[in-house]
C-alpha cells in the first residue's frame, strides 16, 4: 500500500482547482492529516466534488478565487494543471515563496511502485497505453497501472499501488511544471513539437517543462528518447540518466526500424506490418514501448503479442468498423495540423476521404497542402472549413464538400466512397466551436457511422 508519510500532518495546504485530480489530491492530503482548503471557480451548487469534500470536513471556497486566501499562511499550494501560472493566486503564492506543485508530485511521494513517466507533444496517450499493455503481457508479479494525464489521477492510483506494480504515468507539460522530487525509474519523451505556447509563453519554456521529467533521474534510471529529433539528441547529452534512443531513420543503440522490422539492440522483435495500429507515428510509439519492455525484462514474444493486439486508443486513429467494404477511422484527437499529418501518413490518399474542421485559432493550413495531394475527397465543417477548402483547392483535391458538422459529414463522405476506400475523421483543429471536447466529437462521428448501417 502507499508509503505512510507524515510530512503533511497539520500543514496548511491550498488545493487550487478541483476536477478529478484536485479532488483526489484534496482527499489524499486530508487523509494524510493536512489542514486542507479547497478553492474552485465553479459555484458550490453545481460542484459535487466540493460538496463531497465539505462533508469530509475539508474547508471549501467556491465560485471565485479571492486573493486574500493567501493570508492564511499556507505552506503548500497544489495547483490543477489547467490553471496557468499567470493566475493571481498562483502569482501571489510564488511571490510569497510558497511552493506550488501539481498532484503528480504527491503521487510520487506516496507511491510504493516505481514510476514509468511518459511525456511528449504527440503520442503520449498511445505510447502510455502501449507500454502498459506490453508490461501486463509479461509481468508475473504485479500489474502496470495507467495513471496521470490519461484520465486516472496519479495521486489516487498511487494509493493502492504495490511495490511490485508499475505506475505507467502520462505526464503533460502542465503537470511537469509542478514537480519537485518526482523521479521516474524509466522516462520516455516521444517527441517535442510546437504546442501550448499560449500557456508556457515561449517554445523554450515549453521544452523546459517537458525536460523537467528527467531532472531528478540518476545513472540508475533510463531515459527513452526520440533520436529522430536533433533537438532531443542535443538535450540527451545533458541528463544524468542512461539514454536509450529509438529511431525510425537509423540504427541506434536502442530500438529502431530497419528494412521493415523493429529491433532492440540487434534483436529482431517483429515486422512493422504486425503493429496493430496504422501510421508512421505509431511505429515511433511502438519502438518506445519496445524499449521500455526490454528494459523491464519482457520477452520478445510477449512484446510482439501485446503490440499486435493493440487496437489503438479511443479517438486516436481508432478503427471504428467497416461498412460495405469501406473502413472508418476516428482520429478526433487530432486537434492540430501536425497530428493530422501523422494520421494521413498511415493511409493511401487515393483511397481516402478526409473529414476535417473545427475551432479557428487564426492559423492557415498551407502546411497541409502537400498532405492533401491525392486525396479522393474532403468533407469540411466548423469555423475553419473555408481555410481548409483553400488548402484542398491548392492540393487539387477533386471533391471538396462543405457541411454543418461531423454528423452530417459522414453520409456525404460515404456517398463519395467505393468498396476498398477509407473514411478518416482527423480534424486538424480543436472541437470547441461545436463540441465540448474532442471525445464528444469522436463519439458523434462513431454514432453517425452506426446510423449509416441502421438507416440502410
TrEMBL record:
GO terms for molecular function: ATP binding; tetrahydrofolylpolyglutamate synthase activity; UDP-N-acetylmuramoylalanine-D-glutamate ligase activity. It is an enzyme of class 6 (ligase). The keyword Cell wall biogenesis/degradation applies. InterPro entries: Folylpolyglutamate_synth_CS, Mur-like_cat_sf, Mur_ligase_C, Mur_ligase_C_dom_sf, Mur_ligase_cen, MurD. Pathway: Cell wall biogenesis; peptidoglycan biosynthesis. Its EC number is 6.3.2.9. Residues 118-292 form the Mur ligase central domain. Keywords: ATP-binding, Cell cycle, Cell division, Cell shape, Cell wall biogenesis/degradation, Cytoplasm, Ligase, Nucleotide-binding, Peptidoglycan synthesis. ATP binds at residues 120-126. GO terms for cellular component: cytoplasm. Its main location: cytoplasm. SUPFAM superfamilies: MurCD N-terminal domain, MurD-like peptide ligases, catalytic domain, MurD-like peptide ligases, peptide-binding domain. It catalyses: UDP-N-acetyl-alpha-D-muramoyl-L-alanine + D-glutamate + ATP = UDP-N-acetyl-alpha-D-muramoyl-L-alanyl-D-glutamate + ADP + phosphate + H(+). PROSITE patterns: FOLYLPOLYGLU_SYNT_1. It is found in: Cytoplasm. Signal peptide: none annotated. One of its GO terms (biological process) is regulation of cell shape. Belongs to the MurCDEF family. HAMAP family: MurD. PANTHER family: UDP-N-ACETYLMURAMOYLALANINE--D-GLUTAMATE LIGASE. Cell wall formation. Catalyzes the addition of glutamate to the nucleotide precursor UDP-N-acetylmuramoyl-L-alanine (UMA). This is UDP-N-acetylmuramoylalanine--D-glutamate ligase. It comes from Candidatus Enterococcus testudinis. The gene is murD.
Amino acid at each position: 500500500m502507499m508509503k505512510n508519510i507524515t510530512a503533511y500532518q497539520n500543514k496548511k495546504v491550498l488545493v487550487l482547482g478541483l476536477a478529478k485530480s484536485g479532488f483526489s489530491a484534496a482527499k489524499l492530503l486530508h487523509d494524510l492529516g493536512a489542514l486542507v482548503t479547497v478553492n474552485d471557480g465553479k459555484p458550490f451548487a453545481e460542484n459535487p466534488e466540493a460538496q463531497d469534500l465539505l462533508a469530509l470536513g475539508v474547508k471549501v471556497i467556491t465560485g471565485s478565487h479571492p486573493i486574500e486566501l493567501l493570508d492564511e499562511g499556507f505552506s503548500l499550494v497544489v495547483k490543477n494543471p489547467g490553471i496557468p501560472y499567470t493566475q493571481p493566486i498562483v502569482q501571489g503564492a510564488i511571490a510569497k515563496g510558497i511552493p506550488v506543485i501539481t498532484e503528480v508530485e504527491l503521487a510520487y511521494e506516496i507511491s510504493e511502485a516505481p514510476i514509468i513517466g511518459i511525456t511528449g507533444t504527440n503520442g503520449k496517450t498511445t505510447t502510455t497505453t502501449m507500454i502498459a499493455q506490453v508490461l501486463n503481457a509479461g509481468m508475473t508479479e504485479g500489474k502496470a497501472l495507467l495513471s496521470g494525464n490519461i484520465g486516472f489521477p496519479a495521486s489516487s492510483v498511487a494509493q493502492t499501488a504495490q511495490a511490485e506494480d508499475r505506475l505507467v504515468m502520462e505526464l503533460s507539460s502542465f503537470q511537469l511544471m509542478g514537480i519537485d522530487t518526482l523521479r521516474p525509474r524509466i522516462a520516455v519523451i516521444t517527441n517535442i513539437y510546437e504546442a501550448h505556447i499560449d500557456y508556457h509563453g515561449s517554445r523554450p519554456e515549453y521544452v523546459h517543462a517537458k525536460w523537467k521529467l528527467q531532472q531528478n533521474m540518476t545513472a540508475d534510471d533510463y531515459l527513452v528518447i526520440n533520436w529522430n529529433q536533433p533537438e532531443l539528441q542535443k538535450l540527451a547529452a545533458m541528463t544524468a540518466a542512461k539514454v536509450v534512443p529509438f529511431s525510425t531513420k537509423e540504427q541506434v543503440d536502442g530500438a529502431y526500424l530497419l528494412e521493415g522490422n523493429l529491433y532492440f539492440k540487434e534483436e529482431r522483435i517483429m515486422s512493422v506490418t504486425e503493429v496493430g495500429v496504422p501510421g508512421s507515428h505509431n511505429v515511433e510509439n511502438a519502438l518506445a514501448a519496445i524499449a521500455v519492455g526490454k528494459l523491464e525484462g519482457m520477452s520478445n514474444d510477449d512484446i510482439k503479442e501485446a503490440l499486435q493486439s493493440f487496437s489503438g486508443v479511443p479517438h486516436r486513429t481508432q478503427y471504428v468498423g467497416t461498412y460495405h467494404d469501406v473502413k472508418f477511422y476516428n482520429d478526433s484527437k487530432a486537434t492540430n495540423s501536425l497530428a493530422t499529418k501523422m494520421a494521413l501518413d498511415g493511409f493511401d490518399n487515393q483511397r481516402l476521404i478526409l473529414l476535417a474542421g473545427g475551432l479557428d485559432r487564426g492559423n492557415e493550413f498551407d502546411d497541409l497542402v502537400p498532405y492533401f495531394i491525392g486525396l479522393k475527397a474532403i468533407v469540411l465543417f466548423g469555423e475553419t472549413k473555408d481555410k481548409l477548402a483553400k488548402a484542398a483547392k491548392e492540393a487539387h483535391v477533386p471533391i471538396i464538400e462543405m457541411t454543418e458538422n461531423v454528423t452530417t459529414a459522414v453520409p456525404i463522405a460515404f456517398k463519395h466512397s467505393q468498396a476498398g476506400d477509407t473514411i478518416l475523421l482527423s480534424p486538424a483543429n480543436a472541437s470547441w466551436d461545436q463540441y465540448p471536447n474532442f471525445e464528444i466529437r469522436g463519439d458523434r462521428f462513431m454514432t453517425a457511422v452506426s446510423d449509416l448501417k441502421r438507416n440502410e
